[in-house]
């Protein structure tokens, strides 16, 4: 529910705020907008509500992002950028292929758990058949780096004789994403149907270990993950 006019904080002057911290302005708007889009979808999200929850006016939001669809696209790009930047920061240089893949899968699992709005926005974009993602060169470029990252780990494993040859890095990325994505997207329904809290710390840790083991067994040359 939107705050009424008496509850809303006064908006800062547009020109002054842009001059002081334009990147901070964009980040704050995108953070709030992502939550609104994740909760209500593109059609249900309201710029009035986003403005009410930020320090900035509707006019400033339009100044930076053009319109609601422009804001949605930037929020979607930002969501993908966060996960790809997190992958890039993983300290896997010098690790064995098995350890590197383990760390990548664990990161993906933990990131999706901590950023449920990312999962919801991806689900919403699939409802729109990827039509807004298709407009974004930035997202395509970001995801090229993700495939390059996993391809290097996989190639290293094949060279060392611990991963079986002939696998497609894009399909490996699909499988990692699918297991980690489902953990968030279907948690509520699985918990309700089977009477088990799939969001409890113990259950999440078990699911993460199982996800890692499934991926390692799939890529392993002999069907069993190396020690």
UniProtKB/TrEMBL annotation:
Q: Where is this region: Disordered?
A: 1-25
Q: Which Gene3D superfamilies match?
A: Tetracycline Repressor, domain 2 (1.10.357.10)
What keyword terms does UniProt attach to this protein?
Answer: DNA-binding
Q: How is this protein named in the record?
A: TetR family transcriptional regulator
Which ranges carry the HTH tetR-type domain? 23-83
Task: Give start-end positions of Basic and acidic residues composition bias.
Answer: 1-12
Could you confirm whether the keyword DNA-binding appears in this record?
yes
Q: Give the source species.
A: Kumtagia ephedrae
Alphabetically, the GO molecular function entries are: DNA binding
Query: Pfam families in the record, alphabetically?
Result: TetR_C_29 (PF17938), TetR_N (PF00440)
Q: Which residues bind DNA?
A: 46-65
